[in-house]
Design a protein that fits this description.
2 copies of one chain form a homodimer.
Chain A (H helix, E strand, L loop, with lengths): L7 E7 L8 E6 L2 E5 L15 E4 L2 H5 L4 E5 L5 H4 L2 H7 L4 E3 L1 H13 L8 E3 L5 E4 L2 E8 L6 E8 L2 E5 L17 H10 L1 E7 L13 H13 L4 E4 L5 H13 L3 E5 L1 H12 L10 E2 L12 E5 L9 H6 L13 E4 L8 H13 L3 E3 L16 H11 L1 E7 L3 H13 L14 E5 L4 E6 L4 E5 L2 E2 L4 H13 L1 E8 L11 E5 L8 H22 L3 H20 L4 E8 L1
Parallel strand pairs in A: 3-5, 5-6, 6-7, 11-12, 12-19, 13-16, 13-17, 14-15, 14-16, 17-18, 24-26
Antiparallel strand pairs in A: 1-2, 1-20, 2-3, 4-22, 8-9, 9-10, 10-11, 20-21, 22-23, 24-25
């Protein structure tokens, strides 16, 4: 895009009109800054896709201008795309200690750790980049070490909240830095970008602190072993599990790779305090008296490959859920995961465990990490922005967030609900939303980045619903006569031993279609293929009301 | 199964350890009675499947003994399998007027209406079948005209509740017949089968009546047109929508085939009272002043082909959602449907409509049709069964229902949580759960009933995630030499124009694999196919980390 004079340009490459793959751009003249680089898991319609990331064509075209990738916190939807991004565009990365630790694990997996320029920052860091100065403010969320970002430009300040809530009694005693936010607002905010995940939910979140007591009580009442499952990255909750284990005289084992990873990083960066001798190895679980054991595991969303799911299928040789064991879900199913979670609860009951679960915090063991309506209004009130762009949310959340902003005094015309790629150009006098840059979804499948597109997905969908029939037709090169019985193979359509009659009918109709072509037009392969296809399609639909994919090879001999 | 003397045998062919495709069997000596015949919608793992029904092998093997299909109410999970059942086994069907009306629509669609023996019953009917007498009691649910069933056998009474709740101020003034239930309990219940859908939810449902006021208030406040979406079969809610329209001076249009169907049947059977001149046709919606119009439509679950979804995509030429129109969701998303519902809410906001929604009745416009814990305990208390079989629910619901039954005094050893097919044999003295009959899922795909099995589904899954590569290899019949360039076609794997290099590599490796076979072993087609397959698999996994299905044809010329 053309460089706008005395204008700061703001755009999303991911994260608006969707949850996930967050990425925002702030451009002032020749300097572009990127905030976050998340990934998103595909829904079931994206068959076989492993991950969705951003289309960063615009950044690659402007690679000389892109100064830094600034990461607000360590959740997948903010860091998951980083390795794929860095493979396309080398860039220095700025993040707090815990966030950086989690990014490093990813870079190591992709063999990118050595070549990447990483900078550790904290909430007090100030980064001068020519005309733009970048600073931070401390926020709360469901992972520690989160920051919001302030871009001080010659024409005004742009503030990006990252994900946040206001937990005034946080588990780590690191309150959100309301005083600094007030100062920032006092100095003047030209544009605020604020997250919208919970903009539909009224009220103010309870404190994470409230959960500790419920966990401790459940640990105390459990007659035998207790398993507790939560998001590995929720380090504050992990701390409360450790505290509850200590208070109730239980040793704690960790199950699940991401749990071990994050506990290690969090302990190294000082975000977890683990008493000596508290942690035991999985093989020790069954050796101690059961009332002295707690197990913290991944899989609270019912993920089939995570620890909790594997426990119910006896995939751990040395750890078993036994009758009268207790299983606690310190979590709430994310929409879409309900069925998987339910399946695991069923399995745990079959093992005769006591199971404590509930959606939306009914069990007292879960609170959300995202600001609700009153918290969003508090942020808007502190920042007093002239212009407001609600980010990180589906359309209805952005829409509600706009209503909230209006209710605290932001002018309706100064609020911009954007699509990914749409640019808001803000000068001292006005803001306009007239341009856009390239944006979209890029699919990761195995090693391939972007090589699976719409046509491949359309084929996968057709194949998945109706299967495929491959028919091999061999005809005489000179006169188009059928030389041998057609060879028909079906996959995902009907199972051949069950459907011999139908396959025989297909072969008959293929033969007669070839004969007709031969009589009328000779031996043109394209015509033969078309006629055979038409005849077989009609037959199959009549017999089965299905339309499998047809691949027809016509061989001439 | 062997006929048990002086025993009543009870089994489920669907509906336990699952929600949906309900079917229960009650057998006394030579007489078998079937309660309900539902269908179930497949989850996304059952690729391409349209419907799931029961395996009724046992009933077909005992066709001379099966006396009747008794249907408790008109929901899909209780009637959806009837046409498929009747195609396999002719049987007289007994149901109340509304239920029968809905069954008739299905039978007509399948061309079965004329040949089926249908009997209308009401809550006072008594059906003598030799040694067994069948009678009924009136219940409440989210569709009118529901009954529970009593089987009076020489050794005791078996009671099946159907789906129910206790709404003591129902919209149609037809209270649940608590007095008759008390009488039945007083006479003695040997076995109770009771539904478990909401066994996890504490408390007692609010009355459906409470919803009317909220709908009326929303109608009154809506400045322009109001659209309201709910389950078509919730006739009581439809009545309250009609009442609200009348009280607020709006005409009502119906959108969606199932809405029109059910309103017609319900009006004919006296379950709906519609003021003269209230209903208007869809083409009239845009002609009246918008504040005088309400539209009742299907699609509250976000179904892509239902009316509400089609409204957002402008699929109705004559009806539009305009800015300041109001859209009410008088419903709660069923687990699994959240994403589709959210998508529609987003689209409605984009059209600048006011949208009122919420899960679990937050908007005051939805209550569940299924008894919660206190209601389940009330049923158990009224019936005082000696033996109890919780039905209609996933395992954790059956498990909770067992706990509820114990809490009101049913002995633990007298409660049976069964799997589909497992038989509980009850005599005057004891109950045993030792035998089972054939049970399972049968898939309907297009016209095929049961012709898509595990292998086809496995293939569809593989195809959907990785696609397919078909390779045609032509070799000389005499010496196995490759006669022409291999022909490779991919579908759902990589898109060929993007992947020409990879396909060229595949063809090279195919050629070299054929050459190697030729040198070592000559021209065996099976060997060539194996070697080609191995070589291509290795190459593709190395290059892409994917394993598409491979179909290799070796032609000899």
């Amino acid at each position: 895009m053309e460089i706008q004079k005395e204008t700061v340009s703001i755009f999303a490459l991911g994260g608006v009109n969707e949850i996930g793959k967050n990425m925002y751009g702030i451009q002032y003249k020749e300097d572009i800054f990127i905030v976050d680089c998340g990934s998103k898991f595909p829904d079931e319609s994206l068959l076989g896709i492993d991950l969705i990331i951003q289309d960063i064509t615009y950044l690659k075209e402007n690679r000389d201008r892109v100064r830094a990738l600034i990461v607000t916190h360590g959740h997948e939807d903010h860091i998951g795309g980083i390795p794929y991004f860095l493979k396309q565009l080398q860039l220095p990365v700025y993040a707090t200690a815990l966030t950086l630790g989690l990014i490093e694990i990813k870079l190591k997996e992709h063999g990118l750790l050595r070549e990447t320029e990483l900078h550790e920052i904290d909430a007090d860091s100030v980064l001068p980049f020519g005309q733009v100065e970048v600073s931070f403010f401390r926020t709360n969320h469901s992972i520690p070490d989160c920051v919001g970002v302030v871009f001080q430009t010659p024409i005004g300040n742009v503030v990006h909240t990252g994900d946040f809530k206001f937990d005034l009694t946080p588990v780590n005693n690191e309150s959100p830095d309301i005083h600094r936010m007030a100062e920032i607002g006092q100095r003047g905010v030209l544009v605020l970008l604020s997250e919208s995940t919970n903009a539909e939910r009224p009220g103010f979140n309870p404190s994470e602190m409230a959960i500790g007591g419920h966990i401790e009580e459940a640990f105390r009442q459990a007659p035998r072993k207790v398993f507790i499952s939560t998001f590995a990255s929720n380090v504050h909750r992990v701390q409360q599990v450790i505290d509850a284990a200590e208070k109730t005289g239980r040793k704690l084992a960790l199950l699940g790779r991401s749990m071990t990873n994050i506990v290690n990083v969090a302990a190294e960066t000082g975000h977890l305090s683990i008493p000596d001798g508290m942690l035991i190895e999985p093989y020790e679980i069954m050796k101690l008296p059961p009332e002295q054991v707690a197990v913290l595991c991944t899989g609270s969303q019912g993920e089939p490959m995570a620890a909790l799911s594997r426990l119910t299928s006896s995939a751990f040789r040395k750890v078993e859920v036994l009758p009268e064991d207790t299983v606690l879900f310190a979590s709430s199913p994310i929409p879409g995961n309900e069925k998987n979670v339910s399946r695991i609860i069923d399995s745990l009951y079959r093992l005769r465990a006591n199971v404590v679960y509930g959606s939306g915090g009914e069990s007292g063991m879960h609170v959300s990490g995202h600001a609700r309506q009153e918290e969003l209004k508090l942020m808007l009130t502190l920042m007093k922005p002239k212009y407001f762009i609600p980010i990180h949310g589906e359309y209805r959340m952005l829409y509600k967030h706009r209503q909230l902003a209006e209710s605290v005094g932001v002018e309706r015309d100064n609020i911009f609900i954007v699509k990914n790629g749409e640019v808001v150009d803000v000068s001292k006098e006005e803001a306009r939303q007239t341009r856009s840059v390239k944006a979209g979804r890029v699919f990761v499948d195995g090693l391939g980045i972007g090589d699976v597109g719409k046509i491949v997905l359309r084929d996968r969908k057709l194949l998945s619903e109706e299967g495929i029939l491959v028919i091999l037709v061999t005809v005489d090169k000179t006169d188009g006569e059928l030389l041998m019985e057609p060879d028909t193979i079906s996959r995902g359509f009907v199972y051949k031993p069950d459907a011999e009659e139908l396959i025989a009918e297909v072969n008959e109709i293929v033969a007669s279609a070839v004969q007709q072509v031969q009589k009328a037009e000779g031996s043109d392969r394209v015509v033969i293929r078309q006629q055979v296809k038409k005849a077989v399609e009609t037959l199959l639909y009549e017999r089965t009301k299905r339309r499998p994919m047809l691949l027809i090879f016509v061989m001439e001999m």
